[in-house]
Amino acid sequence: MVFWEGYLSDEVMGTFAPIVIYWLYAGIYQLLPPLDQYRLHTRKEEEEKNLVPLPTVIKGVLLQQLVQATVAQALFLLTSKPSSSGVTVQPSLLVQLVQIFVAMLVMDSWQYFVHRYMHINKFLYRTVHSQHHRLVVPYAIGALYNHPLEGLLLDTFGGAISFLVSGMTAQTGVFFFCFAVIKTVDDHCGLWLPGNIFHLLFQNNTAYHDIHHQLQGFKYNYSQPFFPFWDILLGTHMPYNLIRRSEGGFEARAVKD
C-alpha cells in the first residue's frame, strides 16, 4: 500500500508527482543560504557567464513539464492493465527493484546517445541543445531548462522508453521518475555539499556534469543522469579533481592525459 492510495490514482501520481518534486527539491536549493564554501563556481561567475535570466529559465522548465505531463498521461492510459477487480497487481519488491535498475540503464543509454549526437551535429547543437548550455554555470532550477524539442526527445521520450522497456507499473513509475528528477536536479545544483548521498554513491554527479558544461567543445561526460559507463566505454569520460579555492568553495578540474 502507498500513501496516496484511495486519494489519487497511480497514473495521476506518476504524471504530477515528478513535477511537484522538481520544484520542491530545486526550490530547497534555491532558498538555501549562500553556502559559498560549497559552491563549484562563485556567484560572480554565475552572474557573468550565464546568458539567460531566471524568469526565462522557469518558463522554459514549465513548458517542458507541460509536454511531459501530456505524454505521461497518454502513456499510462495506453499501458494500464488493471485486473478483473479493477486494481493493478503490483509485482514483488525485488521485481520492482530490478525494473527500476533496468529503467536506469535504458534511460542512461538513450540520453547518452541523443545528448552526444546533439553535440556532434552542428545544426542540432546550434538550434536546439545550445539553449541548455546558455546556463554555463548550472543551478538546480535550470536542470530541465532545454529547447522544447530537446525536452521532448531527450527527457520525455527517454522516460517513456525506460518505462516501457522495464515493464514497470504506473505505481513503480512514480518512484522511478521522482528519483530520476531528484538526481537530475542534484547534478545541476552547483554545490558540493558534505554528506550528499549522490556524491557518495554515484560517480556521475554534480562535479562530473559540471566538467561537461565547462570544458571547451563539451566533448566529455555526456552521461546522465545515473552511470558513466557509456562515457568510459566510448572514450568520452573525463575524470576530475576537486580543488579548494582560496576565496572559498571548490573547483572541479579536469584530469587530462
Please supply descriptive tags for the structure shown above.
257 residues, mainly alpha, two-stranded antiparallel sheet, 10 helices, 2 strands, 57% helix, globular, Fatty acid hydroxylase domain-containing protein
Describe the structure.
The chain is built from ten helices and two strands, in the order H-H-H-H-H-H-H-H-H-H-E-E. By secondary structure, it is mainly alpha-helical. The chain has one domain. A hairpin with a 5-residue loop joins strand 1 (240-244) and strand 2 (250-254). It starts with 9 loop residues before the first helix and ends with a strand. The model has no long low-confidence stretch (mean pLDDT 92).
Task: List unreliable stretches of 5+ residues.
Answer: none
Number of strands: 2
**pLDDT averaged residue by residue:** 92
C-alpha end-to-end distance? 52 Å
What's the number of domains?
1
Helical stretch tally: 10
The string of secondary-structure elements, in order, is HHHHHHHHHHEE
Counting helices, strands and paired strands, the structural category is: mainly alpha
Strand content: under 5%
**Share of helical residues:** 55-70%
Rg over alpha carbons: 19 Å
The coarse overall form would be globular
What's the layout of helices and strands?
Blueprint: H1 10-31, H2 43-49, H3 54-79, H4 93-120, H5 122-127, H6 148-166, H7 170-187, H8 197-201, H9 206-214, H10 229-234, E1 240-244, E2 250-254
Antiparallel strand pairs: 1-2
Helix pairs in contact: 1-3, 1-7, 3-6, 4-6, 4-7
GO cellular component, one term: membrane
Subcellular location: Membrane
GO molecular function: iron ion binding; oxidoreductase activity
